[in-house]
Amino acid sequence: MKKLILFFLLAACGFKPMFSGNDTDIYVAPISGINGIELRNSLNAKFGGQRESDAAYTLTVNLSNPLTKYKALETTGDATWQEINVRASYVLSRNGKKIVSGSESASESYSFVRYLVASNAAYNNAVSNSINVLSEKISAKVIAATSQYESQQNAD
Predict the structure, then answer these.
(1) DSSP label at 49?
(2) Is 28 exposed, middle or buried, given 0-12, 13-18 or 19+ CB atoms closer than 10 A?
(3) Whole-model pTM above 0.85?
(4) Exposed (0-12), middle (13-18) or buried (19+): which is 109, by Cβ within 10 Å?
(5) What is the domain extent for residue 51?
């Protein structure tokens, strides 16, 4: 019953969810590197699929290489815990006009062990998880910006 009342209250106020099932017409420009490919694919999935370069909006992303910090050291000086940090800056434009820009970062810790294969797998998983977090952050801000821009254009 409470959900039904909440639904009617939200429907009466003109509330429209940002993610209302409408695919956004955003072209994500190629991002360099293997991690860039993964980020671009994830962003395209968030925007409802890959678009051609003549889409209404263009998103340009610059992705930095992952930075690694040692978080825990044994008495021998060997690292046992590391953290990677990935940063991305982005610009969303429409017809050459900048709509929004910003930067986001994501980090994740992972266990660093003496076995090379296990350490590489842990590192790769940490990078992949950080790329997914970046995708979530950037797509939310970009979708919010396109929604706000469209509302402003419709009001004019």
Answers:
(1) S
(2) buried
(3) no
(4) middle
(5) 19-155
